[in-house]
Give the backbone structure.
Amino acid sequence: MYALELKDLRKTFGKTDIIRGVNLAVTQGERVAVIGPNGAGKSTLFNLISGRFAPTSGEVLLNGQRIEGKKPYEINRLGLSRSFQITNIFPNLSVFENLRCGVLWSLGYRYTFFKFLANLDDANERTEQLMHKIKLERKRDVLALNLTYAEQRALEVGITIAGGANVILLDEPTAGMSRSETQRFIELITEVTEGKTLLTVEHDMDVVFGLAHKIAVVVYGEVIAFDTPDKIRANARVQEAYLGAQAESAQTEKGD
Amino acid sequence: MSLHQKSQPHKVSRTVVWASFAVILLLAPLLFTSSLSHTMLSQMGIAIIVCLSYNILLGQGGMLSFGHAVYSGMGGFLAIHTLNLVSDGKLPLPVSLIPIVGGFSALLIAVVLGWVTTKKSATPFAMITLGIGELVWSMSLMFPEFFGGEGGISGDRVTGSKPFGITFGPQIQIYYLIAIYTFICTAAMFAFTRTPLGRMLNAVRDNAERVEFVGFDPRRVRYLSFIIAAFFAGISGGLAALNFEIATSEVVSGARSGAYLLFTFLGGGAFFFGPIIGAVLMVLAFVLLSELTKAWLLYLGLVFLFMVMFAPGGIASLIAMNLRVAAFGRLRELWANYLVLAVTSVIVLLGAAGMIEMTYHLKLNEALGPKLVYLGMSLDAKGTSSWVGCALVMLVGLVSFELARRRFIKKWSAIQEFIATEIQRREAM
């Protein structure tokens, strides 16, 4: 059984086919980089998997269970969590509160209003650990909107992994970061997603080849190749469709 | 914007705050002994509960409701009907528990209406509350059996059992009943802000979409919080019914809902205690200001306008910003500026109010002639000199206020800059 499996997934907006029959099978614990030119449908793919949009047809299986068409919160409760390309945090809450919001559901504190947050020892402890993991412990009580961009990106990832989901989708986690920040940040991601199934959209090819066990190449709404980095590098179709043309412009792309 | 930053107040200081709140509620009627002040204090307690409940929606949940009076008002109507049942001997319920009946009836109504309302957020939410508010208000005129038509439904709170000789006849007795409810409801609503649901409500306010991706249904969060807010509004409505011994269609009107919004905003929704300030101001405005001048709604509108423009965080945020400055030891430099600002704005107000009063006098009291008494002075509403005089006073005030404001802003931003660098310095240590 795969941790995440996509079967002939399709999505059309009006008359435009955005995702045109994607098949993908990711085993438990694999780190997969999703690459492809701009507008290839990488983000849409993530939106379909995480429940932000419902697919037009096809199946999404999480640990063998069909999840397509479910609400995002239902999918999240089944153990799939995602981050966003554009920072998507709780701006008027502190770093600690941001992370705790991510922790609560997974520990069974649902819509309760008969318990004090301060007394939820397990949730608070887990939040503290998480804060150390993403190295924001010195910003504990700072409002998220007052963080630097890189800190906000770290918080974004922190909220994503807070619930302990087994399958993590990161949509361009390093978007807008400098090269040295990116390097450090990728190390952080590798560290905090240890043992989990990870799918990440990434533009920086050095990062991709360093981080991923496998690479999925998305071009025009299709996965044209899904293999180990070495084989992807050697793949003629990928060369032609993507790497050859895009490799040198990868740097410029990172900025948009 | 770090003025919203939550400091972690010491447990001791929190106990002190709550104890002083209790003491104030306890001693207020002994300090202000006139019957007018007892009436006002009772109304303040009622207003505090309803404004705090409204702020669960506005400040904590980012839900701009134009129909909160539906819940306080319906709580009030059901409470007064319950009171009449008690009076008729059909229901053996102590009068002191009737506000709870109001609370639960509002809760049940919110279970139904809130389901529709909280399906949406933001502007559609506001529109639905407006629609439901109008619906209930028009119903109140259509069903005189329940709402009592123009005259409303009246009751008599001196009824039922009289434990320890408490009849709730004298205003002071009903005040203490209100005070007890005010304290308990305030504590309960504060407790709510510290629960998982209360925190997720803040998260929904900040970013509802992200909430979906951490396992919560934002709609459910809004719905449950809406019901809780309605419950407390209903208690407040029930207390009002006991206090006034009457419920008229006015209590469910859009004007009432608007007043809740206006004063909660004035008090400041970003802080828990903000609506308490707003509630006190609401009663002062409705009881005192309306006695003082016929143009009170106009003054109120002006205050609201200036607040939205210059201090959108309300009075509570002004207090918090100044406390922050004080914490860095720079508040003392500002006293002189505040004094000048206060004096110049009073001058502006003097001039402007003179003209407003003359206009109102001309429109409303024409039969009495053009002369009116304004702050001990005699003004002639048809004389040029009165108008020119008032305009001059206002102009002088405006110019000096603007000058004072510029000086103040300069000093203020210098201090804010100082605080920012100071924070950075401390972080780096």
Remarks:
- The two ends of chain A are 37 Å apart (CA to CA).
- The longest strand of chain A covers residues 16-26.
- The mean pLDDT of chain A is 89.
